[in-house]
Every structure is written in structure tokens, then in C-alpha cells.
Amino acid sequence: MGRKVSIDPVTRIEGHLKIEADIESGVVQEAKSSGMLFRGLELILKGRDPRDAQVITQRICGVCPQPHAAASVFNLDSAFGIADKIPPNGRIVRNLIQGIHDVQDHILHFYHLAALDYVDIAQVASYQGNDPELNSIKEFIGRGELGPFLPRYEGDYRLPADVTHEVVTHYLKALEMRRKGHEAVSMLSGKIPHSRGVIPGGATELPPIDKIAALLWRINELRDFINTVYLPDVVAVAGAYSDYFSIGAGCKNYLSYGLYDLEDGVADVTKKKKLLDQGATSSDLVYRELNPDRIAEHVKHSWFDDATTGRHPSQGETKVSHKEGAYSWLKSPRYDGKVYEVGPLASILVSYARGNPTVTGLVNTYLQKLNAKPDVLFSVLGRHLARALATKITADYLADAVLQLTPGEPVNIDYEMPKEAYGMGLTEASRGALGHWIEIKDRKIANYQCIVPTTWNASPRDDEGRPGPIEQAIEGTKVRDADNPFELVRIVRSYDPCLACAVHIISPKTKNLSKFRIT
Amino acid sequence: MSNEVAEYPVIWLQAACCTGCSISVLNTVSPSIKNVLIDQLVPGKHVSMRVHPNVMAGSGEMVIELMETTAEVDKGKYILVVEGAVPTADNGIYGTLGERDGHPVPMKERIKELGTNALAVVSVGTCAAFGGIPSGNPNPTACKGVKEYFEEEGIATPVVNVPGCPPHPDWFVGVLAHVLVLGLPGAEDVDDVGRPLLFYGNLIHENCPRRAYFDEGKFAKKQGEPECLYYVGCKGPITYSDCPTRRWNNGKNWCIGVGAPCNGCTQPEFPDNVAPFYEKITEDNLPKIGDE
């Protein structure tokens, strides 16, 4: 007999997400994901000083503010006609700020957002050793008030007690490491969340040599953690939950805008050399060049007017419609007319398909360890592994980059704001492809549009009826116990969803919303 | 000792927010976030963070049940932390959390229910305190701060405002410590907009390390220059917080430290009346200048 499973709220993600799944004979027949909060930040941006986009768009998401800062200044660079004039120091400081932020964000995701689906923290009750941290957790468990670790889904924790104890200490260590990552971002960018150092034209400040040395060793501390703790833990979890290499594949099309500019003097974001490549690929792992003109947003199953469907984001319009068959506030961005997944897995696969030597070498090393072919990466565990590999590649690059800064050379350039202009800023947030588009009139923001990673991944069905990536990943999944649907939350969390980002897009203009099922 | 530990239940509710306040609180150094969540924050007293959307293990209905049960069973004993503004337009449909009888429950109803029965509410961040970014013109979802919303609804539960976009983790943890050790901050402990004077008692301008440049008339012409940032938009002269002395992220830096002007993020005026962020403050949009 069929059963509908509804998970609301999905916790340990950013934002307010609801997942519904119709299960028959233990298999998900149909899945729907819905966002739950609308703030209308694009409407709030209208009419403001374009430079203020750096401040306001970071507030789209306090988990990934730095990628929004980056996308907004790339967008403004492009609108101001200075994208090819950013001095090398400016480019590198921007990479350092964004890169260190990404590293701590990936650590946060694996340990603090995802790990509690795999690690039974209550097992620390059986700990018999002398570690003061574990003993304090044991005492905490003994007191009996286990919030925020209980209640939870039960029945599928597989790591043996000794491994669990170790991973729990890593959970605590990871809290410290991500905090230290934030401290390094702050050194370059004032404070974080919501930082100040990245501005149109470059960065506010070039760090002096004492700060460069401090940053180098902070980055090295993060690298040690990634190499000796994070990556081994991902492998340990993968060993105990190896079935998740064949769960949650999804659409198997992958899109990346590329991450960390390695080249100066190039305005074209599709051509610029980057650490992780821009482009697209699919399960065939054939590389295809990025063409942002091929992005279009479908709205057939979103609460928007069908007349606005299929448009490029720069031409985006948002008109609410209470039509039959719609079930989401998210639009459905599609690339080249197809469903695409974004995120670290997409970045890694696009770079792999293109033959990026750093990425190819590292991916092959890990595939050998797992004795597996690249297609195991199209999975829940593939996403976790790819995120960890992207973290390592990023951190290794940062350690080099910090020593590439040139004292005495400029870190930003002056510019004049044009009266009228269009801009586009593309980057990768920690959770995938992030695009900002701007139209400036009278030196004010006339229109500001964003397509954020979770809008791609959590999108509803498109005009052709094709489910979005997360929906595809859930549909067809066997659910062992519908009361404890581990499979569903593990799939959803592998995408690292960020709903505050995704649901900011819509622009309601009508009343009578009571019949909406936004939850 | 452990059987005499008093539990202080906390429900952390996210309304119209970006999660930045939660992430900022994770950055608390001493006590660490582990100390706050797991250990006795002060001897004999433990903060029991029953609901925190980004940290908690559970998902779905069990989260809603836990919130509703706490409001009933621990009436008058738990602390409600609100992160984010309260969306009030169109009966609150722009932000909902869980369902009741098959219908989505607006966040404003959750805040009303949980707030009415709480010992106190801590409005963490400028959105919960004053409306913040989502209440920026044209305020599409009629977002409000919790205090204003409670006044309209006639809810008498005390509200402590801990603004900042995001707030410094010390400000939030300091308020927790105040509640645990000294009890709720009283009227004498807060300013006229409900901020603890301990953290928000002075203007940034009063303690700014660049103040000498201001007094001598030496001004930066663009961001990143070492002089006073007044002419590139610094809102320090009208913003109350201890950022210059406390500094951010374990004291590593602060906005002005990286050559960026203060953008007034702890103020009720944030964002509209402290914007444009990179233009000098004017008396037109800031009538309070010089009043203090």
C-alpha cells in the first residue's frame, strides 16, 4: 500500500525545506521539494546604489555570504567595464577570502550538517577512555537532556563504537577548525559572516607580511586537518555505508561556472583560466564549454505566469500565478534545455572531464583506493567525496596563492560607475554554480537577478515535466523504513541545500495566498 | 554534582533570516560552542538547546512536536531565541514552519505561541531585533522585529535585543551568561531600543582607533586607506557597539580594520537609513546625528 512521507522541516541545511515522497512497495514513486520562506531581496535591491549589492546580497545567505560577495563584485566589475583590469593582488586576495571561506564551509557541511546521519553520538555513553572531551559528552548524555542530538531517526547507524568515538572528537575539532577558517577570512575581510574586504575593482587591503605569514600557517593547519582527519573520515563513512555509492544519482548532468581565477586581464568568464574549470559534462564525462546564454528558467510547475517561462535570467521577470499543477516557489533553471546538477561534484567532474591535471590525479587516486570507476561518483557518497577533494585542492592552492601576493603593488583600481550598464557575475558557491545579473539605470539598480545553486538542485519539474535534480535523486530510491527515512535526508543533505538562497527569487504581487501549500 | 544540574531549555527559531546569526554564534571562542551546548555553562546550569535548525539531529514532525511540547510542559521556563524578522504580510504566508491539521503554520503564529509561554525572548540579530534587511524598502513581506510584533499582539514576555548583522558571538553568549548568573537584564541594563548597554553602550566613533584622524581632519579618499573613513560612508558616528574594542572573529579584525566603513548594522536604521553604505552620512536620512 502506498504511503506519503512528508519531512518538514528538513534540518541541518540552510533554510526552510520540505520534502514529500510517495512510497509504494518501499520505493519512492514521486518526490517533491518545496521552499518555505520568501524575503524578496531582489525587490529590496531595486533603486539602491549598485555598490550596496555587495552588502545586501551577502544577506541572501549567512552560511555562504562570501560567494555572494564574490558574485556581486564580479557582476559589478563586469557592469563597470573593469573585469579585465583587476590587479593580480586584487585577484589573489579575492581568491584567498573566498577559498578559505569555502574550506571552512565544506568542513561545516560534512561534520555539522551531514555527519549526524551517519554517526551515533549516543554511543559515546559507552566510552571508557581518558579523553576529556569525550568524557564531558558522556556526562552530558548521563544527565539525560540530549537536545540537540535527540530525537532523531533511528535504526541505521553502522559505525563501530571506537570509530564513532573518534569521529565525535573530529566533530568537535571541526567546530574549532571552521572557526579558525573564519578567523583567517576576517583577517583579510574585516569580519565574517558578512564581510567587507571584497569590493568592485579588487579588495580593500593588501595584507602586510606578518599577516601573510599568519595566513600561511592558518591555511597549513586547515590542510593538515583536511589530509589527516576530513578525507580519512569521508573514506571511513564510505566504507560503512558503501551502498550510498549507488543511491541518489540524480540527473547525471553537471554544470560548473568555475572557481578561483588564475589569470589576469581576461574579462570573459567562460574563457578565464580557473583552478576548477567552468563547463558542463554528463555521465559520459565528455567536456563541454560553458555558454551562459544557454541558461533559461522554466516556470510551468512554479507559482509564476507561464508567459514568463523559458527566459534567460538577464531578462527574468517574476509574476505570480495561482495556476493548477504548480507546487514550488522555486523556478526551474535549465541549461541547454536539460536538467543539471550543480555543486562540488559538478565542479570536480567538469574539471575531470576536461583533464585538469590536479583534479584528475586526485580523483584517480581515490578511485583506485575504492577500486571503483568514476560512475560511483554519481551518488550520495560521490558528492561527499567530491566536496572533500575540492576542499583539499582549494586549500593546497591557497597555501601557494598567499605567497604570490606582491608587496607594494596595488590591490584595487579606481573606476567610474557608468550611468547605464548590464553586468554578469559567475562563480561557484560552496554548494554550486552561483550567478548574479544586474541592470543599472541612472547609477541605480534597475534590476538584480540571482540564480543560486539550490535553485538548480531543488528545482521543481520543468516545462517538459522533468523533475529537478533532488527530485530525480529521490525518485526510485528504496526506503527501508518509512518512519525513519534515512535514505531521503541523506540524499537531500548530500546536495548541501541552501534554501534562503533559493527562495529569495520570487516576487509576489498578488494577495489571496492562503491556498498556497508553502511549508 | 551532575544530578543537581539545572536545565535551561532553549528553542532557537529561524524566521525571515539568512542563518548568519547562527553561524556567527558557532564562532564563540571562550566558552566554545561545545561548552555552550554540552557542558554546564556555569556550574550547576546547562543550556539545553532542544531545537536549533542547523545543529539538531532530528527532522520533520518530531521537531514540531518538541517545540509544542516544550511550550506546554516547560511554560515560563524556557528561552525562545528568534533569528530573523517576523513576516506579517498576507497572514504570514511568506514564512511558515510545519503543519497543523494539514495547514502550514505561519512563523508569526509559532513566535506568538512559543513567545507567550517563554521565560524571555532573545532577538538575535538586527532582523529579529528591528526588522533588518528583509524589512528594507519596499519591505515585500511586511517584516518586523519581535519586540514590535509583541507590542502589537499584546504579548508581555520580556525581549532582549542582540542586534548586529550578524551579532558578535560574545554578545549572544554574554546575554545567556547574564540570564544564568544574574537573571534577565533589567531596564537599567539596556538602552532605549532594548540593547544591553554592556555591549552597545558607546558609539563606534567614541572608541574608534581612527578617531584621531577624524579630529585632525585627515580623511580616506577611498576604502583601504589608513585615515578616517567618514567621507567614504562610515556610520560609526551613529552606531552603537563595542566592535572597535572587542573586534571580530576571536579579535582578529573588524570592518574598519580592513579599511571598510562601518555600515551601521547594529542600528534600528539598518539598512535603509544607513544606506547608501559608501556615501557620507547626511542629516537628511539621519536626523539623530549630533543629538547624543
Explained architecture:
The complex is a heterodimer of chains A (519) and B (292). Chain A has 519 residues and is an alpha+beta fold. Chain A is built from 14 helices and twelve strands. Chain A has a three-stranded antiparallel sheet. Chain A has a three-stranded antiparallel sheet with strand order 10-11-12. By secondary structure, chain B is α/β, with parallel strands linked by helices. Chain B has two domains: 2-198, NADH:ubiquinone oxidoreductase-like, 20kDa subunit (Rossmann fold, 3-Layer(aba) Sandwich), CATH 3.40.50; 202-274, Cytochrome-c3 Hydrogenase, Chain A, domain 2. Chain B has helices at residues 20-26, 33-37, 61-73, 107-117, 126-130, 146-153, 169-181, 197-200, 204-207, 211-216, 243-246, and strands at residues 6-14, 45-51, 79-83, 86-87, 96-100, 103-106, 120-124, 143-144, 159-162. Chain B has a five-stranded parallel sheet with strand order 2-1-3-7-9, sandwiched between helices. In chain B, helix 1 packs across helix 7. Chain B is globular, with a radius of gyration of 20 Å. The N and C termini of chain B lie far apart (49 Å). The model of chain B is unreliable at 287-292 (pLDDT under 50). At the A-B interface, helix 1, helix 4, helix 5 and helix 6 of A face strand 1, helix 1, helix 2, strand 2 and helix 3 of B.
Distance between the termini of chain A: 26 Å
According to CATH, the homologous superfamily of the largest domain in chain B is NADH:ubiquinone oxidoreductase-like, 20kDa subunit
How many structural domains can be distinguished in the coordinates of chain A? 1
Number of strands of chain B: 9
The second-level CATH architecture of the largest domain in chain B is 3-Layer(aba) Sandwich
Biggest sheet strand order of chain B reads 2-1-3-7-9
Helix amount of chain B: 25-40%
Shape of chain A: globular
The major β-sheet of chain A equals: 3 strands, antiparallel
- The backbone outline of chain B, from C-alpha atoms, is globular
Indicate the mean pLDDT of chain B: 94
Quaternary state of this entry equals heterodimer
> For the record, what is the CATH homologous superfamily label of chain A?
Cytochrome-c3 Hydrogenase, chain B
Number of domains of chain B: 2
Task: State the CATH topology of the largest domain in chain B.
Answer: Rossmann fold
Largest sheet of chain B: 5 strands, parallel
**Which structural category do the helix and sheet elements of chain B fall into?**
alpha/beta
Portion in helices of chain A: 25-40%
